[in-house]
Design goal:
Blueprint lengths: L1 H34 L1 E6 L2 E2 L3 E3 L5 E2 L1 H13 L2 E6 L2
Parallel strand pairs: 1-5
Antiparallel strand pairs: 2-3, 3-4
Length: 83
């Protein structure tokens, strides 16, 4: 009986946590769409995923995925790099 009660409360807790994360995600999406830009942070030092080309522009797989995601959301990508 105690195990059944523990499983029930664990499942209830997980359900509540998932519901709160979903609400936060919707709020964040509204903020991104209202701002019109998707802020993306990366190092720019991990080829082929993200790196700077000879002109200093970010290139790579992660950059392409981020641009595609921003396009899908209908906003502009805004890249930030750590130094």
């Amino acid at each position: 009986m105690k195990i059944r009660k523990a499983i029930f409360f664990a499942a209830l807790s997980v359900s509540a946590a998932c519901a709160s994360f979903a609400a936060c995600a919707e709020d964040l999406l509204d903020v991104v769409k209202a701002r019109g830009t998707l802020m993306i942070g990366m190092e720019g030092t991990y080829p082929p995923f993200d790196y700077r080309d000879s002109q200093g522009k970010l290139q790579g797989f992660d950059v392409d995925v981020a641009k595609a995601l921003a396009t899908k959301l209908g906003v502009l990508p805004e890249f930030y790099t750590g130094e």
